[in-house]
What does this fold into?
Amino acid sequence: MKRFLLVLAVLLLLVFGAYWLFLKPMLNIATGYSAKYACSYHFIGGMSKVNIKNAFNFFPTQYISYDINKDKGSVSASIFGLATRKASLYKDGEACSCVLAGGEAKGIKANLEEVELIETEWPKGDAVSHGSQLLISKISRMRNVMDTSLAATNQLFAVTVSNNDFVFDRYNRNNRQEDRLLGWSMTKSICSALYGIMQKEGKVNVQAKVPIAEWQKDERKEITYHDLLQMNSGLIWEEDYSKISDVTNMLYFDEDMYQELIDNPLGEKKWYYSSGTTNMLSGLMKNLVSDYESYPYKKLFDRINMRSAIIEADATGTYVMSSYCWATARDWARFGLLYLNRGDWFGDQIFEPEWTDYSGTVVESSNGEYGAQVWLNKGNVKYKDLPEDILIFSGFGGQRVIVFPSDNIVMTAHSGKNPTTDFNALFGALYKIWKK
It folds into this structure.
């Protein structure tokens, strides 16, 4: 009996140790993910419970229960009663952000009111006209393609062309034109545009070395803003969402996301996709502009009529530019149109035309796929049915804005949480119709 009890005690100790060391941290990521995004989806995106459920329809979040407390502006999530995490909406006047760990977003300004549609002609407003009979014929065929895709993936879709004609948008039955959609890593391209604006204003020279005090005694002092924009700094980083890694620690445990990468050492100087790099760029902006809180709105969103746009912050007030910009489907299309027009918005030069070229310059070790916080298609690696000169703003949950410079068109697709969508097939079919 003593031997049995000893074996049982050892087994229980091993099980408890395995849970505490390995399973519990993973469950905390899953419940943290669910609490954070249910909070943001509901209070910032205005999504219905049906759409939130659809967005969480993958393992293991499909087994996580969450409770939305509208009165307290919070969401708690747990899995079988374990690993409970809570996210709260911080809203003080115009400030808003959903943060984990009981923190508060300090002083970030945004308009959380429901998006109002404006009858001004597109793209400054929401009134649209479709132009020629030939364009109307193409729209009909493109809509058929999108309706098929909507039925399969619940995508939300908008298209514009360079002469500012609005082509069409399509929404599944649970979504509205005025709903904000999370861009995930398309937010990184927002960060790049802001650096383009700062470069134009003389607030930054992207070829300059980054003035981080902790780096001045080692080789990291040679890292430039350009290196960070191209994710080519050599700073060691692990971008793996399936386990405890640098990126999951940053998004689901850290209150200060800017600090996550600062202590990391140098490895080989080559391209490596790093969300930590983008949040470092966001934090560095605080020393480059005096009006950090309002800068994205005043210098970008307001000027290009992205009235719905909101960037969430971490608990220290640093914008999470790796992942957390929200905007309507049409506003994401407006952002693509800005790049199509090489920074010009009806005579207002937001960033220099050369910034578009810079953004589309290939990082040598990226296999033709990456520029300055923008994805590319050099060599047709991922988008074999699309031109090589496209610019791609991409989110891991199945979000895309694709700019076609040679064809004067922008296509956007937002699938909520469906990273397996075959975007080459979808955009390829639409592009084929457009070219005929």
